[in-house]
Structures are given as structure tokens and as C-alpha cells.
Amino acid sequence: MRYHPISNTLFIKNRTQFCSKMKANTIAILSSNDVKHNNADDVMGFTQNNDLFYLSGIDQEDTILVLYPDAYKKENREIIFIKKTSELIKIWDGEKLTKAQATEISGITRVEWIEDFEMALQYMAFEADGFYLGHNEHLKRATKDQQTQQDRMIAWCKQKYPLHDYYRAAKITRQLRQIKSETEIELIQKAANISVASFKRVLKACKPNIKEYELEAELTYNLIKSGGTRHAFNPIVASGKNACALHYIANDALCKDGDMILMDFGVCYANYNSDTTRCFPVNGKFSERQKEVYSSVLKCLKDGSKLLKPGVIPSDYEKQMASLVEAELIKLGLLTADEVLNQDPEQPLYKKYFMHGTAHHIGLDVHDVGLYSRPLEAGMVLTCEPGIYIPEEGIGCRLENDYLITKEGNINLTEAMPIEIEDIEALMNN
Ligand code: GLY
Ligand code: MN
Ligand code: MN
Q1: Potential cystine with 238: which of 87, 144, 195, 242 (Cβ 3.0-4.6 Å)?
Q2: Atom of ligand 1 nearest to the CA of 233
Q3: Rounded CA gap, 91 and 93, in Å?
Q4: In the predicted model, what is the mean pLDDT of the chain?
Q5: Which of 112, 142, 176 is the last residue of a domain?
Q6: Which structural domain, as residue segments, surrounds residue 187?
């Protein structure tokens, strides 16, 4: 593993909390994700299912977690099924987890090979009244046109045990995962620290006529060298007007003298993520107009992030952030006060220059699970990411930090990432 072992007390506590929310006499079954295939025998790689990871810490394919807190026999209360390792697997893929290692990582005493799952479950299923099964419940972009391991588990279980009750494990995990424990916050902080160092490296490398992907390479070099597991998402390195395409990831353009670069990137460390955005001038010196736009966005970030505190409802926060951006758009001469006064409230004018939300939960998922109707609470971690995009001027600016909500307000976990104009220019010119 590239990351330091995580104390299994995290996963033990997560399971205790999860089980306390299960209905009486039910079994929860959580499956790992598939290793996704590409062409021929090539694979795209493996990312663990986050609910399974949250409850077990096992970061390996072909894993099933079974929780049955009311089981008559104590040994059936929690079982982790893992891939049976063999000499052949060892020759081709290297070491896989032994049973003892799986116990050490997860704190689960009973470890079985995955091929024994169906038989073991059979004994427990007739004692139980229902099942909790995992499923991707992302609001807008849940998996479609492909069958996941979870989909197959649901189909198999319902076919085999049609008269049991069925419940959604994700309904419980999305509630628990919204509040981060101290260990989780440390892991997010670790990801954030790698992000800070990676950003500084990029600033030093940036110069006119460099390709966007060369800056991406600097980012990747530092990320991997520092023990980051992977990019949290495909990094956006967008110069000039490319910065106005919100999910630009081609990163293949030449960075022209006089343009500004928007870099939105995240580090995944031990499956926990950071998500930050910074903007900087290709030639190390912001133009007057870039400074104006940048200062507006920075003001929105500074003022807006203060709104992230306990009790705030995310939709109210978003409205207030929109007002902050609207006021800056007037200052920048992009809208007039009159136009704004007379606008159709259903179609506010600011949306032409600022078209996305500015706070999402972050944790095991970059856009982490959890309900946005839930008021903010201490222990939540959210991004704050206002932006202003002016394609006709070739300027797109977004600034993004990650904030831990505390009883007193919030703590910026990405505080160490340079953001003031003078600091960025100084680092680029040293
Ligand atoms: N890069 C994705 C986001 O900022 O939400
Ligand atoms: Mn981002
Ligand atoms: Mn974000």
C-alpha cells in the first residue's frame, strides 16, 4: 500500500455506528467495485467502493462485507470475504491480503474466502428478516449503461431470497459519512498538504509556451512522489479561454504569454480527497484585468467561506454566495445595477458568468455523499469555490479551498496553498 496503515479503530467505530442504524434482524452486504476492463486484457484499474472501504478499510478487489448484528451465533455478526490468494496470483499479481492481514486492517476477526460467501450467507439468510444492500445513489451521475458489482448483488440476492425485506445501505452511509472523524480529517489534511506542495512545484515550472500537460506532469510527479494514491479526478489545467469550459481536461494547449491558467486538481490519499483550484499568470505577472477579476473571486471566496458554519442550510449559503458574485460582476462592469434590479429572478443574469454551485461535501468521494437539505454541522468538510468566467475576454477564474466545519465556524484545510496575488507572483519569479 502506498499510504500508511489506518488504525482499524476507524472502521470498527464506523461499523458500530452503521449497525446501530440497521433494523432489527437484518443483514448488510457491501460489495467491492469491479476492476474495470478496457480493451483485450487491459484493465482501467481499481478503485474501492467507498461504502465498503468506510466500513472495513479493505482496499482490494473481490471483497464482500457481511454485517449481521443480531445473528444468533457470535461468529456470524461480522464476516469479511476476501479473494483467495494462491501461488499463481502471487506469480502474476504479487501478494494479496492474507486472512491475518485482513483482520489487522479491518478489526474483523472472521475472514473467509469469497468463494465461500454464498454458502455462509445461506445459513444466515433464513434466520434474518431482511437485507441492506449497497447501491450508487448519486443524484445526477450515478452509473448507468453498465452493471456494477452492487447491481449484480442486488439482482442475485433478490432472486435467491425474494421474500426478505430490502433496505438501502447507502441511506445509512450517506448520513454517517457526512460527519468526518478525527482520523478522516487527518487523511483529508494529508491529501491537502500534498496538493499544496504540488501547486508550488507547478508555479515554479510555469513559463510562456509551456504545454498545459507539462504542468499536469509537474502536478502528477509531486503527487506520486509524495505518496498520493492518485489524482482525485482528472486535473483541469486550462489556460486562457479554456478556463471557461468548466470540465476541460484536454490539457493540450500551449500556455500563451499574457494568458491566465486555471488549475483545478485534487489529491487522493488513502481514498480520501482534497479538491482545490488556483489561477496564475503564464508569465508570472497578472495583467490589470486579470487582477481585477481574480480579486473579485478572491473576495467572494473570503466572504463566502465565512458563511460555512454550523446551522447554515446549503441552499441559503448558495443564495448568499450568488449575491456576492453578482455584486462583483457589477463592479467588473459585466452587469449593471439597473439590469440586476430589473432581472427575471427565475433567470438571474449572473448565471452568464457564474454557472455552478460553490460548496460540496468532500471525503471518500470528491463530491461526497450526503443530503444537501441537512444543515451544516461540526465535522463536515466542504469546498468553497466561487468563479467568474468571461470567454469574450479569455479569462476564467475560480478559487477553491476545503473547509472543516467546527463549532466556532470553520478551518481552512488548504490554508497553506498560496492564494494572494503577491504571493503567487513572488513564487513564480523566484
Ligand atoms: N473539480 C471538481 C470540483 O471542483 O467540484
Ligand atoms: Mn475542484
Ligand atoms: Mn470542488
Answers
A1: 242
A2: 1
A3: 6
A4: 96
A5: 176
A6: 182-429
Looking at ligand 1, which atom is closest to the CA of residue 356? 5
Pocket of ligand 1 (CB under 6 A): 233, 264, 275, 360, 385, 400
Average pLDDT value for residue range 330-350: 97
> Whose Cα sits closest to atom 3 in ligand 1?
275
Give tens-digit pLDDT for 85-94: 888 988 988 9
Distance 400 CA to ligand 2 centre (A): 6
Cα gap 376→305, rounded to integer Å: 13
The position carrying cell 473547509 is 403
Q: What is the pTM for the complete model shown?
A: 0.97
Read off the pLDDT of residues 50-86 as tens digits, 9 standing for 90 and up.
999 999 999 999 999 999 999 999 999 999 999 998 8
- The greatest distance separating any two alpha carbons of the chain, rounded to the nearest whole angstrom, comes to 75
The ligand 1 atom nearest the CA atom of 266: 1
Buried b (16+ CB within 10 A) or exposed e, 110-137: bbbebeebeebbeebbeebebbbbbbbe
Q: What is the pLDDT of residue 23?
A: 98
The domain total for the chain is: 2
Same domain, 127 and 22: yes
Nearest residue by C-alpha to atom 5 in ligand 1: 367
**CATH number of the domain encompassing residue 192:** 3.90.230.10
Q: 360 alpha carbon to ligand 2 midpoint, in Å?
A: 10
Looking at the structure, tell me whether residues 99 and 161 fall in a common domain.
yes
Of 142, 176, 210, the residue that ends a domain is: 176
The pLDDT assigned to 146 comes to 84
Task: Name which residue leads in pLDDT, 40 or 9.
Answer: 9
- For residues 305 and 234, membership in a common domain is answered with yes
